[in-house]
Amino acid sequence: MSEKKMIYLQPTPVRIWHWLNALGIVTLCITGAQIRFPEYVNLFGTYKAAIRLHNTAGIVVSLSFSLWFFYYTLFAGTMAQLYIPKKEDLQSGIIRQAIFYFFNYFRGKPNPHHATPDNKFNPMQKSAYLAIMFVLVPLVSLTGIALMNIAPLRDLLIMMGGLKILVGTHFLLACSLCAFLFTHIYLATLGHTPFAYFVPMITGWEEVEEHGHEHKPVHDLGKHAEHVSS
Asked: Where are the alpha helices (DSSP H) in 37-104?
């Protein structure tokens, strides 16, 4: 016998950070496109206006990253638990989750990972977020800050290979972050409805079914029941 239950999956600081970060990154991608390709993209008026908005969005993303880091490190204390893949995640969890994303989802099979407040991310998400949040975002932020302070950092930039190297590095990192954004949005639609995974990031609550001592998402249990009955 199972019953529906609501779990509080996304606390308010996390939701604020998520949407602030999302708005900032989208703004960075669009303004960055105009800065890089002004002859093809002109959404923000003048070139200087695009640069000002780009720099402002970069500061917002840097501040939101700090909010995320300090919340999970100092307040919640769950940074390692949520974002660092465990041995089992690396040995078999990533492969199992990849098979689900690429094959089993389209065959109606259940997701092998069931999100809980203490284990929100599947092995692939942990690995991706580890690279994104601990490598990509800090490097994009640092190279962006350097581009905003070229004159004071002139000697350092010369030692690192010059302005062209810095601009090229920042652009390639930004392209990687933009590619992650599209992938992230696509994977977020793979719930029992296209917007099922968006709801917890808006309200904080996700509906699950309590079955014994295990909490499973409603859509996963529904798929499992269909599979058993077939």
From this structure: 47-70, 79-83, 87-88, 94-102
Quote the pLDDT of residue 223: 41
First to last CA, the chain: 20
**Sheet of strand 214-217, all strands in order from the earlier edge strand to the far edge:** 2-8, 205-211, 214-217
Per-residue pLDDT reduced to its tens digit, 201-218: 999 988 765 544 444 444
* C-alpha separations of 178 from 25, 33, 55, 137, 174 in Å: 8, 11, 17, 11, 6
Q: Residue 29: which CATH number?
A: 1.20.950.20
Task: Give the pLDDT confidence score for residue 196 in this predicted structure.
Answer: 83
Token duo for residue 15:
């939701």
> What are the DSSP E strand ranges found in the chain?
2-8, 205-211, 214-217
33 pLDDT band, cuts 50/70/90, is: very high
| Domain, as residue range, for 168 | 2-229
Length of the chain counted residue by residue: 230
Per-residue burial over 9-38, b = 16 or more CB atoms within 10 Å of its CB, e = otherwise: bbeeebeebeebbbebbebbbbbbbbbeee
CA 171 to mean position of chain CA atoms:
19
Cα–Cα dist 223/109, whole Å: 6
122: exposed, middle or buried (Cβ count in 10 Å: 0-12, 13-18, 19+) = buried
What total number of domains does the chain contain?
A: 1
